[in-house]
Amino acid sequence: MDFSEIKPFCRYVRTLKITKTSSFTTTLPLDCRLFYVKKGEGIITVGKNKLTLPMGSLLFINAFEPYKINKCDVEYLAVNFDFSFRFSFLKNPIPPIPAEKKETVKPIEKVILTSAPCFKEYCYLKNALGFSALLFELEKEFTEKPPYYAQKNSAQLTEILIEIYKKDAFSQKNEDSFNAEEIAGYIREHLSEDINNVTLAERFHFHKNYLSSQFARCYGKPIHQYILEMRIIRAVSLLESGRKSISEISESVGFKDSNYFARYFKKITGVSPTAYVNKSKKS
Asked: How far is CA 137 from CA 134, 159, 228, 267, in A?
């Protein structure tokens, strides 16, 4: 499944209080898990990795990844969910099973998101305080269950997962200080120029293949696609202003060939630049 195709089903949300007298064994979740530390400091072991979770941190664990909640004084906001609605008829919380029963049970839905590797096994964000409002609203909606709460929970969880993906992608600083946001900003400011993988690699002092792969990891799309999309977005704004001709706009957003501009504009928007202008005048 591609990350763009997710439609998460929020199965269960609750506040989970753990104490130093609590006792847990290593278990396998049959659906996905999110743990956000509301109070105190938690410790959760995922596989062979023992993670210390300070207040405001967030941990995602994929279905069928072994984990153990360690005893300590901590309060989690815990979420059980699937990446799709395929098994939304299973509405009650599904407890994890003992790890030793792995060969006898299957997960409800084991999803590998090809374009979001951070969700393959587990993802740990040490600082996720910016997620707190979204998570608390998710808990409130699920607890009170107003009309259409399931649809709203799905939208809220989608936003949370997108933010996890973005934060994970942009927080992974490389030794060479690769900064995808800086490159994207440069692209948006220089759309009229001849920019591509090669020119950007020279400008930011990276090999073109490395720059392409790292940018795609952060933005989920190749650089050339991002450049073209930004050019069309800028072109739409200019077309709506009515101050320039289509050929002038084509050149100003970096298309040397106005025919190629027209073809790509129609591919993205569904209409030609001329049809878009005429439609804008009528509306």
From this structure: 5, 12, 37, 38
Which has the closest alpha carbon to 96: 141, 39, 156, 31?
31
What pTM did the predictor assign? 0.72
Instruction: Annotate the chain with DSSP letters as a single string.
Output: --GGG---EEEEEEEEEE-TT-----EE-SSEEEEEEEEE-EEEEETTEEEEE-TT-EEEE-TT--EEEPPSSEEEEEEEEESSSTTTT--S----EEGGGGGG---S-----TT-GGGSSEEEES--GGGHHHHHHHHHHHHH--TTHHHHHHHHHHHHHHHHHHHHHHH---TT---HHHHHHHHHHTTTS---HHHHHHHHTS-HHHHHHHHHHHHSS-HHHHHHHHHHHHHHHHHHHT-S-HHHHHHHTT-S-HHHHHHHHHHHHSS-HHHHHHHHHH-
pLDDT one digit per residue (tens) for the chain, 283 residues: 889 899 999 999 999 999 999 889 999 999 999 999 999 999 999 999 999 999 999 999 999 999 999 999 999 999 999 999 999 999 999 999 999 988 888 899 989 888 888 899 999 999 899 889 999 999 999 999 999 999 999 999 999 999 998 888 776 555 457 888 889 999 999 999 999 999 999 998 899 999 998 888 778 788 999 999 999 999 999 998 888 899 999 999 999 888 999 999 998 899 999 998 887 666 5
Closest CA to 115 of 61, 162, 57, 62: 162
